[in-house]
Specification:
The structure holds two protein chains of two kinds. By secondary structure, chain A is α/β, with parallel strands linked by helices. Chain A is globular. Chain A has a six-stranded mixed sheet with strand order 6-7-8-3-9-10, with helices on both faces. Chain A has a four-stranded antiparallel sheet with strand order 2-1-4-5, covered by helices on one side. Chain A contains eight helices and ten strands. Mean pLDDT of chain A is about 85; it is low at about 225-245. Chain B is α+β, with helices and mostly antiparallel strands. Helices cover about 65% and strands about 5% of the residues of chain B. Chain B has helices at about 1-5, 30-55, 60-90, 110-120, 130-145, 145-150, 175-185, 200-240, 240-250, 255-300, 310-335; strands at about 100, 125-130, 160-165, 190-195. The chains are: A alpha/beta, B alpha+beta.
Chain lengths: ~250, ~350
């Protein structure tokens, strides 16, 4: 689903945000991306959804080489990826329903079909009763769930999340993560950037660790070999537990 | 997760991870026909939404509309003045009368016959005969040389035919037409000399031409002004909706989708400005009709000021809408691309 091939990202001024990052997230897999602030988590996600372009190396998303994607094709590419932001990026000039409907409206869906899908998405995140409210009056956790509903309403095959629990207490964070696991169980590939190590190690999924732009670890959390998990675990991470990103 | 199972999105057999290498196509999943209808509905919705947003802050919008209205009313007003002048000019086109001085001693019967012949011609509206005797009589009374003239043995004045050409609009080719007519009349064997008061006409036509160029220049200037005002206003709107633009781009809004509401905002600014301009023109016509009628009355003439008419109003509205759209388009091209999610 996502394949990074020796990907580096330099910013003007010589700062190196990512250095020769190599990994492969299989279709239907769920993985966490962790590391300290400034390690390159956000940069990596931005590269996947083409908010930034790689300086070197190749990125494939859903088989598509992102380097070959033109500016004109960009919106249509983004419509197939759901993204959840730490600050949820909701619009406060419209209600919850309209916020969630936005991607469908953009893609030109039939309003009735869109309404059906919006309700289904809101139902999944448990906010069906609040569709008429302004997101401003919702709690932080609820706002984040509206953001998640918006990210999945278009039935993306890939879901990205950048610190989705960054502003939430542990209880709410666990609920949000459980929500992501539910989506993964129905086949959505998920990559979540989070620095909440205690939370993500408990969840027993694949964990990619970045340090100063290098991928220093790619392993499964302890005991992740439980039965019935998604067909995900890449062999390499089980054997070595460590995939270094070069010198 | 019972809830999850119940929803259609989670049908177990169908993993969303289908078609792994499907190339990105710039079309939605709908087929073309639906796509077209959807597109139309989307446009309609965006147009209505843009207008509603303008009406949410009526004071600011009205001020912009008035500014645009004044800028549009000036050139259109000048154009109307020009049109009315032209109409007035063609009312007084008897000034373009051509005097044919006949050969001396031409019989009255020949004069009548020539008059009939001339009246057959398309470009001649009216022919008046001033016989030699009548000319002498008039000259005697007007000039004050009555005594001296009565001493003469024979009438020194020729008969005159006064030819009024068909209506002249003062437009292109008028001069040429007059010159051709003059040459043709000059060629008549009965005619000794032809005189056309061209100086007066030429001045009028040059003035009209000057005014027309002035109007054209001012129209270009003011239309540029309208485009820039709308462009700048839309730029502020874009700034105000920056967050929304970022989110829309993040969830896959194309450049065209993001630009659309602003283009409609520009359209509404333009159309509103055009409406204000029409109202200003109407008010000016009503205010000016009285004095103009009075002035025309002094010259024994009746003048009804010509407005733009319904078609003119439609042209103004369409034109101003187009200018607004163009202004917004420039602004969108310049500023929208720069707003990208970071």
């Amino acid at each position: 689903m996502i394949k990074f091939d020796e990907v580096s990202k330099h910013y003007p001024g010589g700062q190196e945000a990512l250095a020769k990052v190599d990994f492969h997230l299989q279709a239907g897999e769920i993985a966490f991306l962790t590391g300290r602030s400034g390690a390159g988590k956000s940069t990596l996600l931005k590269l996947v959804m083409l908010m930034e372009r790689a300086s070197q190396g190749q990125i494939f998303v859903n088989g598509q080489n992102l380097g070959h994607l033109s500016r004109r094709q960009l919106p249509y590419f983004r419509r197939r990826i759901g993204v959840v932001f730490q600050d949820h990026q909701l619009l406060f000039d419209r209600n919850v329903f309209e916020n969630v409907a936005l991607p469908l409206q953009i893609a030109g869906y039939d309003p009735r079909e869109a309404a059906r899908r919006v309700r289904a998405a809101l139902d999944k995140v448990g906010l069906l009763g609040k569709e008429k409210q302004n997101p401003l009056v919702l709690s932080g956790g609820e706002q984040q769930r509206v953001g998640i509903a918006r990210a999945v309403v278009n039935k993306p095959t890939l879901l990205l999340a950048d610190e989705p629990t960054g502003n939430l207490d542990p209880q709410l964070s666990a609920e949000i993560m459980a929500l992501f696991e539910q989506f993964n169980q129905v086949g959505v590939s998920i990559l979540i950037a989070s620095h909440d190590l205690s939370l993500i190690t408990r969840l027993r999924h694949r964990i990619l660790t970045l340090d100063q732009g290098r991928l220093v670890s790619d392993r499964l959390a302890d005991g992740a070999l439980q039965a019935g998990g998604p067909p995900s675990a890449p062999a390499v991470s089980m054997t070595s537990g460590f995939v270094a990103g070069g010198a | 997760m019972p809830r999850l199972q119940a929803s259609r999105e989670s049908r177990p057999g169908k993993t969303p991870a289908k078609a792994p290498a499907r190339p990105v196509q710039p079309t939605s999943r709908d087929d073309q026909g639906w796509h077209f209808i959807r597109g139309f509905e989307q446009h309609q919705g965006v147009a209505v939404d843009s207008l509603q947003r303008l009406l949410l802050d009526p004071m600011a919008s009205i001020m912009t509309w008035v500014v645009l209205g004044i800028a549009l009313a000036l050139p259109t007003g000048l154009y109307l003045v020009l049109q009315n002048l032209q109409q007035f000019g063609s009312n007084v086109d008897q000034a373009a009368r051509i005097s044919l001085f006949m050969n001396m001693g031409l019989a009255d019967a020949r004069l009548m016959e020539l008059r009939e012949r001339l009246l057959q011609q398309d470009d001649i509206r009216q022919v008046d005969i001033i016989s030699a005797a009548a000319a002498l009589e008039e000259f005697q009374t007007v000039s004050g040389f009555g005594e001296a003239l009565s001493g003469l043995d024979e009438n020194p004045l020729p008969a005159v035919l006064v030819v009024t050409p068909t209506s002249l609009d003062g437009g292109a080719g008028t001069q040429e037409r007059l010159a051709r007519l003059q040459a043709r009349l000059q060629a008549l064997p009965e005619v000794d000399a032809v005189q056309l008061d061209r100086q007066w006409l030429q001045r009028l036509y040059m003035l009209i031409d000057l005014a027309r160029r002035l109007t054209l220049g001012l129209t270009i200037l003011f239309c540029t002004g309208v485009i820039l005002v709308v462009g700048n206003t839309v730029r502020l709107t874009i700034e105000n909706r920056r967050a929304e633009i970022v989110v829309i781009k993040l969830v896959g809004g194309s450049d065209a989708y993001v630009a659309r509401p602003f283009l409609y905002t520009g359209l509404w600014y333009g159309v509103g400005g055009g409406l204000v301009a029409c109202l200003l023109l109407l008010a000016s016509l009503v205010l000016l009709q009285g004095p103009v009628s009075g002035l025309a009355g002094l010259y024994g003439s009746k003048v009804v000021l010509q407005g733009t008419g319904i078609s003119g109003v439609l042209v103004i509205l369409a034109g101003s809408g187009l200018l607004g759209w163009a202004g917004a388009g420039i602004s969108v091209l310049r500023h929208l691309r720069a707003i990208e999610p970071t």
